[in-house]
Structure formats: C-alpha cells, structure tokens
Design brief:
Blueprint lengths: L2 H46 L4 H7 L1 H13 L9 H18 L1 H4 L6 H19 L3 H10 L8 H21 L3 H7 L3 H16 L5
Helix pairs in contact: 1-7, 1-8, 1-9, 4-6, 4-7, 6-7, 9-10
Length: about 210
C-alpha cells in the first residue's frame, strides 16, 4: 500500500475509531441510569403482582450464579497490542511527553491556565498509554499537531480497537436494561420484564 493510500486509510479509520469511542461513552452514560430504571421497573412489576422476589432469588440461587458467571466470562477484554503495536504506542506517548510533560511546561509559552490543562492532558495520555487506549492517545496527538508514524501495524491496531468498541456496544445493547430503555410503551416494557423473570427464575407470567 502506498504512503498516500495509508494516510487516507489512517484518516478514515481514526475518524471511525473516535466515533465509536464517543458512541460507547454516550451509551455508558445512558446505561448508568438504564440499569437503575430496569431494577426499579421490574421490582414494581413484581410488587403489583405480589411476586415474592426474595423467595425467587433464594430458590433460584444456583441458576442466578450460573448466569452471573456466564455474563462475567463473556465480558470483553481489551486486545493486547502486538510487539510492533507496543513500540508505536510508546512512540506516540513519548512524542506527546516531549511537548506537554510537566517538566517541559515549565519553560513553555503556555499561560498558567493552559499549563494546568496540558498537565491534565498529559495525565490522560499516560493513562491511555498504560491501558492501550489508541483512541485517546491518537486524539491527544492530533490535538497537539503531532505526526504519527503510519504503517500497516498501526492500521491493524486501530482496526482491532474499532472491532473491540463495536463488540462492547453490541453487548450493552443486548442487556435487559437497554431493551427496556428502548421499549416505547408499558406493555412492551412488561414483556421485557417477563422475559427477564423467565430467564432468571424460570417464572412464566401470562
């Protein structure tokens, strides 16, 4: 692949990467409330029908433990970068550190407010490098106007990160909390709760 084509692909997939990062962040913020809403809704659903949740939980402890264990097993773990990926990650981080490391900021032309902002940005970059967060690191690099070494290894790492984010989003959107959040009517919300009770407690409600 020519350098020009690599640059075009890089610009395209970085935009895609940042898009999915924002999508996941937005989804996570919704899910914080959606989980609470689901718990409140299904408890109220059971209360209206005089369903003893405490008794159901006690009688179905084994099944609940099994489903919880399966859910934990299915949680997505971030892919570790390849050897070349680690080198590139470290290189991008070091290029950022050369500009906004606190020691560099002492003699910079930034005013005090900007220095504090850059110090926070550097902390974010350090955390991103430690956690293999390509999106965060590349976004900071781009904001600082730094050039990135574009090669096949970097493009592959970004593609893997995009795939990871997509799977995280899809996984969240299969939860009962999300499905309930999306349900437009009370009848449809009730159907979601009935499905949940059937799966967790093998309880059939007509």
């Amino acid at each position: 692949m020519s350098d020009k084509r690599k640059t075009r692909k890089y610009n395209k997939i970085v935009s895609e990467l940042l898009y999915y990062r924002i999508e996941l962040q937005h989804l996570n913020s919704i899910m914080l409330e959606a989980h609470l809403d689901f718990e409140a809704y299904y408890k109220e659903f059971c209360k209206k029908r005089e369903i003893d949740l405490g008794k159901l939980q006690e009688e179905n402890k084994e099944n609940i433990d099994k489903l919880t264990s399966e859910r934990d097993t299915q949680k997505f773990k971030k892919n570790l970068p390849t050897i070349e990926g680690k080198r590139l990650l470290s290189k991008i981080y070091k290029s950022i550190a050369l500009v906004i490391h606190p020691d560099k900021l002492i003699t910079s032309n930034y005013d005090e407010t900007e220095k504090k902002q850059k110090e926070e940005e550097f902390k974010t970059a350090a955390s991103a490098a430690e956690n293999n967060d390509w999106g965060e690191l590349l976004e900071i690099s781009e904001d600082l106007g730094l050039k990135v070494e574009i090669n096949d290894a970097l493009l592959s790492e970004i593609d893997r990160e995009i795939d990871f984010l997509k799977r995280r989003i899809q996984n969240e959107q299969t939860t009962y909390s999300w499905i309930l959040y999306q349900a437009p009517t009370s009848d449809e919300k009730d159907i979601v709760v009935k499905q949940f009770l059937k799966r967790m407690f093998n309880l059939e409600i007509t």
